[in-house]
Amino acid sequence: MGRARPSLQELIQRRENAGFVGRRRELDAFRDNFGLPPEEGRHRFVFHVRGHAGVGKTWLVRRLEQVARQEYGALTARVDETVGSVPEAMAAISAQFHRQGKEFTAFDRRLATYRQRRHEAESAPDAAERPGPSTGSMVAARTGLAGLGLVPGVGALAGAVDPVPLAEGTDRLRAALSSRFRDHKDVQLVLDPVEALTPLLVRELSEAAAAVPWLVLFFDTYERVGALLDPWLHTLLTSERLGRLPANTVLVLAGQTRLDPGRWGELADVVAELPLEPFTDAEARHLLAAKGITEEPVVREVLRLSGRLPVLVSTLAENPGTSGDLDDPSATAVERFLKWEPDPVRRAAALAGALPRRLNEDVFRAAVGEEAAGAGLFGWLRALPFVGGRTGSARYHDVVRAPMLRLQRTTSPQRWSEAHTRLAETFAGWRETAAGGLDPRDGWKLDAWSGPRLEEWYHLLCARPSAALPGALRDGIDACDAGPAVARRWAATLAEAGEDADSEEVRAWGRRLEGALRDERRRGIEAMGLLLARAGLDTAGRAAAHVVRGWHRRSAEENDAALEDFRRAIELDPEDVRAHFGCAAIHRLTGDFTAAMDALDRVDALEPGATWVQRERGETCRRAGRYEEALALLDPVIEADPGDHVALGSRGRIKAVLGRPREALADLDRAIALNGDYTWALVRRARVRSALGDTAGALDDLDRAEELAPDTPGTLGERGDVHRFAGHYEEAIAAYDRALALDPGYAWALGSRAMAHEGLGRRAQALADLARAVELNPGYAWAVAQRERLLNSPEGGRHDGPV
Predict the structure, then answer these.
(1) Using CA atoms, how far apart are residues 48 and 616, in angstroms rounded to an integer?
(2) Cβ neighbours of residue 800 closer than 8 Å, sequence gap 6 or more
(3) Choosing a second label site near 578 at 20 to 30 A (CA), which of 82, 202, 203, 518?
């Protein structure tokens, strides 16, 4: 059986490679690296291709990929801005390796499970169709309750929770995931696909690498995908937490900007910088000669129009004209290209295709009109030198798109506005179809909704910048509520629309918001401040901004400021459930349990009968030490919903404190059976098992907890206690040492380590640890008592551990 015929894309790439000229220095550096073994100090694991738009970065990346495959037998994969998440990037790598004969069977199977489980989570029935509160089921999601650690056991997932289940709210998360998916690994897969999928991908890469000389992974348009992929790639290069990359792996990053020095500075010795400049005169002439263009007046005109930018040299080389066409020295490269295209339908399609930020055939049809979209017009457009991207989606090169937009905007402002309005309406229709009536505040967490929404705003802002801006800013409150990644995409949309519409007002807002959202740890705090100060929000908008900023301040541990935001929101909207619950959360955190219960009373009045409110009441009573009252509140919650693992965990902890370890163990067992990744409950069950003499079981629980949340001082302190109570003093001290290395101010671990030292007869070390513990926390009564005991009783004696 003969070899299958090449695809259209392969033929296009062959032609591009055949016409490749220049970049000898960069190609030689890349080739030379394959001659150096990974152990050699001069070997580079990362190449960074950098340069302004149009200098040929993508062109060079494709040539480097060809060199790696054909000359050095490498397996390769290329990722660009068409991916919208780290799992999508991993899927693209797997798919491309598959086409080269390397199947990532285990990874692909798990990826398919992730997509199916995510789809099931997204497709869960609307709250109105299920029993239970509607607003209440969304409260925890919008507050970021789970990610902020306010729900016991979920804090370890902070910052890694996928937006899909959070859009369902805490109650729906429990119902749609923990109960829906029998395997707790599926729950974790949906909550944190990067942590779950990456080790599988790395394992598959390692197996593939064993059979070939090199693996080369290319990441193009890094100025767009870097914010998404940078943390993941940096972790892969600097840590073995997600797996061990094979040593014969090389990464190639290509973008317009320098790599973040704060993240990549430590890797300078393994990164090779390949800065690109426009073609030299000789390189540009070489390319033109390869296309058969040697007439000197035409060559000079192409060089003038293109500025020797490879993408424009290539574009003009396809339609060079003749010396008789050189009658307008002020013409731009784009205008000359359009002039030389003889078919008016194609000229119009090239212009209309520039209006959307990204193109697939559906978007192209909406841009040019159904009638004009036939006759293979999209295929023709995809083959143009300035249209990049692979199967399914495409993007005009910025160097070409910008003047095309400017030409249309200035030639006919009315047609410009009408075209963008039509595109906005198209994306709005797709968004509404995908959402199925989902609350917009929660739609931002779903790609199927947020993607079309951003394009809708882009086109509205291009069509009528001043009129659309207030709505786009108001919608941004909910975008920021959905998390930093979504917020940054929203801000970038404003900045791009301002640039493309030449609206300084919109452009300035976009840039200010991008700057305000740069520090992911601050989430939307500064962005909400900008909106509150300058956006002219109405009362409802101001209340919403205060609530979002309040929860983001809570995540940054700015509790006083968060409380002030929640109070201001209540002044503006006394019925805002999230604001009242925010007050309850802050009061509980700071130990003002009476105020916390008062705030929950107000939530209960707004959400009468909601079980989640009663659970929060029970948890508040537990934190306050009112254990019998807490049990009275939690028992009905669990009776109403036996699958509420959070309530079960809280009740289990209470029973342990009350000296009922067997009952505590039963509740904690049920909670963990419902959610095997329930870190909080695993640590508490370890404590109960240790008290019951099950040292092995306790250590198993702590092993699992450390897998879920590595390097957590509290978990290591618990490990120390398990060993100490079992008489394993050296192992206990090793665990306390690790905890204190992570947190030198951990007074509790110092007190516990003192007892282990005493168990080994090291009285001086024990006294030193107790002295330090009391110095750190003068109110640490247990440590004070133990120090007095040791000072007054040289022989020491048996004792309980610190509490």
Answers:
(1) 50
(2) none
(3) 518
Kindly report the number of other CB atoms within 10 A of residue 238's CB atom: 12
Which run of H or of E encompasses 49?
strand 46-50
Q: What is the b/e burial string over 399-408, where b = at least 16 CB atoms within 10 angstroms of the residue's CB?
A: bbbbbbbebb
Mean pLDDT, range 541-546, rounded to an integer: 97
Task: Give the residue from 773, 724, 726, 769 showing the smallest Cα distance to 745.
Answer: 773
Q: At what angle do helices 539-555 and 465-481 cross, to 10 degrees?
A: 40
pTM listed for this prediction: 0.71
CA 63-204-161 angle, 5° bins: 100
- Measured CA to CA, the distance from residue 69 to residue 50 in angstroms comes to 22
Consecutive H or E run containing 470: helix 465-481
Helix (H, G, I), strand (E, B) or coil at 108: helix
3-state secondary structure 530-558: HHHHHCCCCHHHHHHHHHHHHHHHHHCCC
Render the burial of 247-264: b for 16+ CB within 10 Å, e for the rest: ebbbbbbbbbeebeeeeb
Contact at 8 Å (CB) between 361 and 377?
no
**Cα distance between residue 760 and residue 351, in whole Å:** 81
Instruction: Extract long-range pairs of 780-783: CB within 8 Å, 24+ residues apart.
Output: 780/747, 780/751, 782/751, 783/747, 783/750, 783/751, 783/754
Q: Please count the other Cβ atoms lying within 10 Å of the Cβ belonging to residue 485.
A: 16
Tokens at 419, concatenated = 């075209």
**Cα distance from N-terminal residue to C-terminal residue, the chain:** 75
Please give the DSSP secondary-structure letter assigned to residue 720: H
392: three-class secondary structure by DSSP = coil
The rounded Cα 134 to chain-centroid distance in angstroms is 28
Q: Which of 159, 178, 160 is nearest to 676 (CA)?
A: 178
Which amino acid would we find at residue 192?
A: D
Helix, strand, coil abundance in the chain, percent, nearest 5: 65, 5, 30
pLDDT band at residue 175, thresholds of 50, 70 and 90? very low
Q: How far apart are CA 349 and CA 372, in angstroms?
A: 8
Q: Can you name the residues that pair with 46 across neighbouring β-strands? A: 251, 271
Length of the chain as a residue count: 803
Phi, psi of 47 (to 5 degrees): -115, 135
Q: HSE (CB half, 13 Å, CA atoms) of 2? A: 3
Dist. CA 41–CA 26, nearest whole Å: 20
CA dihedral 6, 11, 12, 16 (to 10 degrees): 130
Separation between Cα atoms, residue 196 and residue 190, nearest integer Å:
9
- In this predicted structure, what is the pLDDT of residue 380? 84
Spatial distance between the Cα atoms of 637 and 649, rounded to a whole number of angstroms: 12
Single-letter code of the amino acid located at 290:
A
Whole-angstrom distance, CA of residue 85 vs CA of residue 627: 44
CA dist list (Å): 564 to 504, 585, 601: 34, 13, 19
For residues 742 and 713, the answer to whether their CB atoms sit within 8 Å is yes
In three-state secondary structure terms, 50 is: strand
Which among 591, 542, 577, 584 is positioned nearest to 562, based on CA atoms? 584
Q: pLDDT digits over 71-121, tens only? A: 999 999 999 887 878 888 999 999 999 999 999 999 998 888 888 777 666
Interior angle at CA 83, CA 98 and CA 164, nearest 5: 110
Rounded Cα–Cα distance for residues 264 and 49 (Å) = 14
- DSSP letters of 235-272? HHHH-STT----TTEEEEEEESS---HHHHGGGGGGEE
Q: What is the distance between the alpha carbons of residues 506 and 457, in angstroms, rounded to a whole number?
A: 12
- Which pLDDT score is estimated for 120? 64
